[in-house]
């Protein structure tokens, strides 16, 4: 009798746990019409995680090392082991080093990369991991649209041609994330010559609520011309606290101040997350 009562109690507890787990997963999977964009605190480098209202996910760059896995675990459910799209913007190690581990841990459907060629051992290891993953590989070109569902999409602004032999920063993949009336400008390490070229091509179409400061706040990016057309409410410096490059440069800080743009910094704030309902963008 006692054994039967014990088994009944155990069965009820197991069923309760399973039911609670199912409801928790369902709750976590319901984005409630919200787009979430997280600029991950991965030290000196870039890594941006996009969670669309449809549930589709994009990772733009992976920072310098495996530390990105810990940061991804902080912004995505523990059971989630897939990412729909990964974009290594260019071969520099501070952007792609962590993707080696990401590709080993997560199942990736599509990889969108620049045609710019890398020559480092890190980039060779990334390319080997891409091949092993078996994901669909797309070479980025201006005009491509990545449909994230439920009205969210990512548009490629640059490069506008094959760029196998240019400087890696010149050939990096510049994207703009759009959801409803809101948008995020994500210019990788693009220098001012690319920024100003985009102003000529797109003008007011560059306007975005959030701008990731190009090249971690270096003075080689964030030209006043470009920043003025983007006209963001927020700018984000993605960088390590004690980086040897002096990022962000005071000239860039002054540019944002001149335009009354609120500048945020992963060094001092950790991972920076924004939420959009398609009408407004708020910092979480």
Automatic annotation (TrEMBL):
Residues 42-220 form the Metallo-beta-lactamase domain. InterPro entries: ComA-like_MBL, Competence_DNA_uptake, Metallo-B-lactamas, RibonucZ/Hydroxyglut_hydro. CDD domains: ComA-like_MBL-fold. It comes from the Bacteria. This is Metallo-beta-lactamase family protein. Coiled coil: none annotated. Pfam families: Lactamase_B (PF00753). It comes from Candidatus Kaiserbacteria bacterium GW2011_GWC2_52_8b.
